[in-house]
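#struct-help
A.M.: can someone run this one for me? Single chain, 131 residues.
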Amino acid sequence: MVLAISDTVGLPGAPETNRSVRDWRKRLGIPVQRYGKRFTSSLSNLPDVVRRAWLEPCTHEAAAHAALHEAAPAVRDRADRKGAIVRFLTARRRAGMSPAQALTALRAASGPWRGCAALWQPARYGNLCPA
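D.P.: on it. Structure tokens below:
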């Protein structure tokens, strides 16, 4: 699995900024590749602490999930649809697709798609926790 520098920012055992993560990876001798404008590296090359933190299910959003559980059914349905879109796109990106390819695959899988391409902006959403 290939991760961008921004995907590991703030994980336990990793620094808090993109630049410091790049320097940290260089200091540890972790190979870094360029993918377009992004720096990436393989998950298997990261230290165990960071790799485990990336692979663990997200638990820090328990309060948000509890609030969603109390929301109206229409709100929950909309959140479920958006979550399905994000999980679909995240899985395609982790498989190595470009954002454009992932959106094309989403359109092909869901028929006429009236969603917003801005839904998939890793820099805006940070580390997503696929269910």
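A.M.: thanks! Residues 2-55 form one domain.
D.P.: also worth noting: The longest strand covers residues 38-42.
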